[in-house]
Amino acid sequence: MTDTIAFLGTGNMNGAILRGLLAAGHPASSLRATTRSGASATALSTETGVEAKAAGEDASANAWAVEGADVVVLGVKPVGIAELARQIAPQLRPDTVVLSVAAAITLATLEAALPAGQPVVRTMPNTPLQVGAGAVGLSRGSSADDAAVASATAVFGASGQVFEVPEAQIDAVSAVSGSGPAYAFYLAEAMADGGVALGLDRELAVKLAAATVAGAGRMLEQEGVDPAALRRAVTSPNGTTERAIAVFDARGVREAIAEGEKAATDRATQLSIELA
Questions:
Q1: Which residue in 154, 166, 171, 223 has the most C-beta neighbors within 10 A?
Q2: List of domains in the chain
Q3: 8 labelled as ligand-binding?
């Protein structure tokens, strides 16, 4: 049986998840969506065939979307998540799985805004979901059983890999994979800049760096691959790559990345407190 899924706030992230479901064969007729404006609702419906309404123009749009839904995906900005949860609470079935893709909003905050016993799942997706290559951390709430987690996992299955973790680790997941695409883009940017400094045309340097980072990512997707083993395979003794890695180690690149991830984790924890 196909789940009925409601997407509340269908921006980039929720839009990528919705499109992934459609690409995997989920029928458009079992999906509903709300957007901020009428223009965006019309554009989404025209592109995907999914019925959409504008919550910014129709006060009943969110209630319409969640009525009878098996899964509700909350995708508005974090500051509005708790209020949205309170708004839709009367329309939820007791077994409707409420899934949040909002950063920094804790399970406790969500559960406090919803009826007692409502199955809640908190997730941390990343932007490569937009190209079907995402990584998603998932934490279950106190009333979310294995069936609820399975329903939540199925929402993302067409767009990326899903990893269940305790909520205490979700900020670390955010630091590694949530923010991680920016680290990869930063690396590609730095590689291109270095190529330009060595005399390459910028357009060529950018293309070489982008293709290399993307290709390395494909190699990392292979079953049972160890990143360190792949690095060693490219690093011939006394070769050019070994010289480059030695400079990175001397400059503390590995330590800088770890410190950056710690700073990202600390900020996520701070935001959770601020938004509670």
A1: 171
A2: 5-165 (3.40.50.720), 180-271 (1.10.3730.10)
A3: yes
Give the DSSP H/E element, type plus range, for residue 26: none
13 annotated ligand binder: yes
Is 0.85 topped by the overall pTM? Answer: yes
Q: Is 35 annotated as a binding residue?
A: yes
Give dist(CA 83, CA 103) in Å, integer.
Answer: 15
- List pLDDT tens digits, range 226-237: 999 999 999 999
Nearest Cα residue to 231 out of 220, 223, 221: 220
Q: Is 269 annotated as a binding residue?
A: no
Q: Which residues make Cβ contacts (< 8 Å) with residue 55, sequence separation at least 6?
A: 8, 9, 34, 35, 36, 61, 62
Q: What is residue 96's three-state secondary structure?
A: coil
Name the token pair of 111. 């559960």
219 assigned to a ligand binding site: no
Q: Count Cβ atoms below 10 Å from residue 154 Cβ, excluding itself.
A: 17
